[in-house]
Amino acid sequence: MAENKTKETNESVDDFLNSIEHEGKKADSFRILEMMKDITGLLPKMWGDAMIGFGNYHYKYKSGHEGDIFQVGFSPRKSYLSFYLFYGYKHHPLMTKLGKHKGGKACLNINKLADVDEDILYKLIEFGFLSSAGGDNPYAKMESC
E strands, 48-114, where? Predict the structure, then answer.
């Protein structure tokens, strides 16, 4: 079975965020960092070269593939801010109130924080963190791996 490419590193989160050239994206990233610290009560860690994660989560798919990843996290990509929340997030009822966004099965993308309701985003991140820590996530059943 293939080994996961995305692993926790010892790189500095602050150094990474300070290297972002676009001032708006940098400011949004530091705001998201504080939001996730508040929600999780944990210190952020770099995962790979561009993802910031909080906590640790061991997953195992029906296929037998398993690995370790953060419970919630984000990445300031060139074109958007990417959030790694929880599997099936798009089925959560709060998504209709979030604002302008795109995404896939577990990854939510926004252009900037001003495009979304931060209170709703906070609640979605909080749900993702709590459900990955052993809470129930009924929305995961609505997606297939």
Answer: 51-54, 57-60, 66-69, 72-76, 81-84, 102-103, 107-110
Angle formed by the axes of helices 23-40 and 118-132, nearest 10°:
50
pLDDT higher than 60, residue 143: no
Amino acid letter for position 36: M
Evaluate whether 84 touches 129 at the Cβ level (below 8 Å). no
Helix (H, G, I), strand (E, B) or coil at 68: strand
Confidence band for 144, pLDDT divided at 50, 70 and 90: very low
- Beta-carbon neighbour count of residue 136 at 10 Å? 8
CA-closest candidate to residue 97, choices 77, 117, 72, 123: 117
Average pLDDT of span 53-62: 80
The pair of three-digit structure tokens given for residue 73, joined into one six-digit string: 């996290």
Measured at the CA of 66, the angle between CA 62 and CA 71, to 5 degrees, comes to: 105
CA–chain centroid gap for 78, Å, is 16
Residue 86: predicted pLDDT: 67
Cβ(77)–Cβ(108) below 8 Å: no
Q: How many CB atoms lie within 10 A of CB 14?
A: 10
